[in-house]
Each structure stands twice: as C-alpha cells, then as structure tokens.
Amino acid sequence: MAAPTPTSVRLDPELKRQAEEVFDQLGLTANTAITLFYKAVVRDQAIPFSVSVKPLEEYSPVVEAMLKILNEQGALSAPDAEDDGPDDDRGEECSSRDE
Fold it and tell me: What family is this (predicted)?
C-alpha cells in the first residue's frame, strides 16, 4: 500500500462537530469515516447514498446543514465551464490522512 496522502477539506465547524459526535458513537475517527466513504465510492462506483431533491426538513440535522452549505457554495448547481468549484474561505479546515 502506498503512503497515505494528506487531504484537506473546509467544513462548517457546527457540521464537523455534529458529524464527529456520530463518529464517536460509532467508535470511528473522522479519518476512518472518510476512508470508509472513499472505499464505498470506489467499490460501488457511485455515491453510497441517495442524492435527491427533497425539502430540507425531511433530512437529519447533519445532512440538512451539509446541503445548506453545499447550496451556499454553489456546489449543488452545475458549474460553469471555467469554474474550478467553490473557493469559499468560510468554515474550518480539516485535514485527514488515510489510515
């Protein structure tokens, strides 16, 4: 196995706190949870959960917060041809290394 690659993401601090509470209850670190997500994407060649258009009140508070942030950053709309994605400096930076 190759050496782990550092990965950095910007997260809303409240979203991060809420997700890490769930990870703690599951006995996972954020690193392990992210690695599980990546492995599921590779295995299934798809996002490992349903992505649909539903009113936000139908989602859990964590998913609702995540969707709100993605929408504010424009990540849920189709990017322009010249757009590299959101360059948002809001939120908290979170670094992880594969385990």
Answer: Belongs to the RelB/DinJ antitoxin family.
